[in-house]
């Protein structure tokens, strides 16, 4: 857990650390130099910064002021700013609303499913919400189901965007909106059959969603099921605007999903992929779950804002974002981060009615950096998750962000959310044996041309440091040992591997 210092001491420390002498920028630790040379990577592909947190010592940097692609270490920016601006108890929510009269169990009009950036609205949560509606006396819905996503502006950021890569159906590529039903993912079970077929069925069963398969069997382990996956062929149901009326016993009609590729023998696997239009998925889940409660529905699904005068019929709240930061950072969840990033822009939406929520979220991040005295030159935000070709931040900006967060009131929430070296999350198989194991808390970042680490490391005296390490290069995939050797050296030897002992002749602040 982070050490808590009095506010004045923390402020003095931050001021001293940000102006402390810096060692020669071209001097890299010997093991880092050797690893770069062995991998054939130039030193200018590597950027690194180390800043003290609880004692007086000089900062150290190598190309620290150069804007770099950070990969998923950019999630730290979203996490830190959200903890400070929104607070750890900020929650998403989902509401059922209607302006229609309820007469003898019949809702004589439309029902609105209104999204409030609820990151946990899966099938079980929607089932419970519909149970609350049923207990309010609603049994039959005569009107349409209106899907209201206007918590963000525009309501659908995903429409018209090109795919990030050639696997848009996989969870890491999901672009969330305010009505984040089942994470926009269709859950289904794949099972290899003795006769060589691969069967598939939706979980829970969904009306009007049908699978066929041309998949063959391979000899891969079950854990590698996706290695033989090929994009599915989806023949969609009629669009919401032209769809026929939906009865509760049938739901959205006619969606055919043909699975392709190969699948491991003797394997059964439940997976979740982005195969259905998100509104169709929501309507299918609604229909199936409402039927389980004995409800019926005679209308169709439409994307539309709630009309004036609606009344609240049922509401659910997600867990606080302070808790959700743990899965967000430990597993590097892109969709959760994108959702939280958009939440940063919501408070300013009323005052700036023409601005997109993305623009307002970027303004919130820029404002936070400026308020904390961190220069924003070169800082580029896109979606806040790091899954972006355009996002940029320098190692210095990242380390200063971590330094400010350490001294802030939400330090413990951030610290607990970070993967622990050699123990869990995306660091569970890295730095498994050494002085950093179980101590260093580090967010990872990976893209085709990026590897990065940023977080907190302790030196041999137990003193905490903020570190930010980034490699941008076409051969970056091979450069993880560069980052790991830096952290291992730092935890093993402290800053003495970075600068001469004479630089360290400064008294501690405590």
CATH hierarchy: architecture of the largest domain: 3-Layer(aba) Sandwich
Helix content: 25-40%
The total count of strands amounts to 23
Computed over alpha carbons, the radius of gyration is: 26 Å
Q: According to CATH, what is the class of the largest domain?
A: Alpha Beta
Q: Supply the number of structural domains.
A: 2
Oligomer: single chain
Provide the CATH topology of the largest domain: Beta-lactamase
- The N- and C-terminal alpha carbons lie at a distance of 18 Å
Low-confidence stretches: 1-26, 240-252, 501-510
Mean pLDDT: 91
CATH superfamily of the largest domain: DD-peptidase/beta-lactamase superfamily
Sheet having the most strands: 5 strands, antiparallel
> What is the count of DSSP helices, taking H or I runs of 4+ residues?
11
What's the shape?
Answer: globular
Provide the structure class. Answer: alpha/beta
Instruction: Please state roughly what percent of the residues sit in beta strands, choosing from under 5%, 5-15%, 15-25%, 25-35%, 35-45% or over 45%.
Output: 15-25%
Within the largest sheet, what's the order of strands? 2-1-23-22-21
Features:
single chain, 510 residues, alpha/beta, Beta-lactamase, five-stranded antiparallel beta sheet, five-stranded mixed beta sheet, 23 strands, globular, disordered N terminus, disordered C terminus
């Amino acid at each position: 857990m982070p050490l808590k210092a009095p506010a004045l001491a923390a402020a003095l420390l931050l001021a001293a650390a940000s102006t402390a002498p810096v060692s020669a920028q071209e001097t890299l630790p010997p093991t880092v130099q050797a690893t770069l040379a062995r991998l054939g990577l130039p030193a200018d592909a590597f950027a690194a910064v180390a800043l003290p947190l609880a004692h007086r010592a000089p900062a150290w940097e190598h190309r620290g002021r150069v804007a770099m692609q950070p990969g998923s270490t950019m999630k730290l920016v979203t996490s830190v700013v959200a903890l400070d601006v929104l607070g750890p108890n900020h929650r998403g929510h989902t509401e059922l609303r209607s302006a229609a009269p309820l007469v003898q169990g019949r809702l004589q009009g439309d029902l609105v499913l209104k999204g409030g950036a609820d990151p946990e609205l899966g099938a079980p949560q929607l089932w419970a919400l519909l149970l609350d509606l049923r207990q309010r006396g609603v049994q039959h819905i005569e009107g349409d189901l209106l899907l209201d996503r206007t918590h963000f502006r525009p309501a659908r950021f995903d429409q018209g965007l090109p795919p990030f890569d050639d696997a848009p159906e996989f969870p890491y590529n999901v672009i969330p909106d305010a009505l984040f039903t089942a994470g926009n993912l269709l859950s289904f079970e794949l099972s290899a059959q003795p006769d060589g077929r691969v069967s598939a069925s939706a979980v829970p069963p969904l009306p009007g969603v049908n699978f066929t398969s041309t998949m063959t069997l391979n000899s891969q382990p079950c854990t590698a099921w996706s290695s033989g996956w090929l994009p599915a062929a989806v023949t969609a149901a009629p669009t919401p605007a032209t769809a026929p009326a939906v009865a509760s016993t049938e739901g959205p009609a006619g969606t055919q999903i043909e699975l392709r590729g190969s699948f491991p023998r003797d394997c059964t696997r439940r997976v979740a992929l982005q195969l259905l239009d998100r509104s169709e998925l929501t309507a299918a889940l609604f229909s199936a779950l409402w039927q389980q409660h004995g409800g019926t529905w005679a209308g169709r699904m439409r994307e539309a804002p709630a009309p004036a005068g609606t009344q609240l019929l049922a509401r659910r709240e997600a867990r606080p974002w302070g808790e959700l930061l743990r899965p967000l950072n430990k597993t590097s969840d892109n969709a959760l981060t994108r959702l939280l990033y958009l939440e940063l822009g919501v408070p300013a939406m009323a005052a700036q009615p023409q601005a997109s929520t993305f623009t307002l979220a970027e303004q919130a991040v820029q404002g936070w950096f400026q308020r904390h005295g961190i220069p924003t030159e070169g800082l580029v935000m896109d979606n806040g998750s790091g899954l972006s070709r355009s996002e940029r931040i320098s190692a210095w900006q990242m380390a200063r962000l971590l330094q400010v967060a350490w001294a802030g009131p939400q330090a413990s929430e951030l610290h607990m959310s970070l993967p622990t070296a050699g123990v869990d999350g995306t660091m569970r198989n890295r730095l498994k044996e050494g002085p950093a194991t179980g101590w260093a808390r580090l967010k990872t970042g990976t893209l085709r041309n990026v590897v990065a680490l940023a977080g907190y490391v302790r030196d041999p005296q137990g003193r905490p440091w903020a570190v930010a390490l980034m490699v941008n290069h076409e051969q970056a995939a091979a450069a993880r040992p560069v980052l790991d050797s830096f952290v291992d050296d730092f935890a093993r030897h402290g800053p003495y591997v970075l600068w001469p002992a004479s630089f360290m002749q400064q008294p501690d602040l405590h």
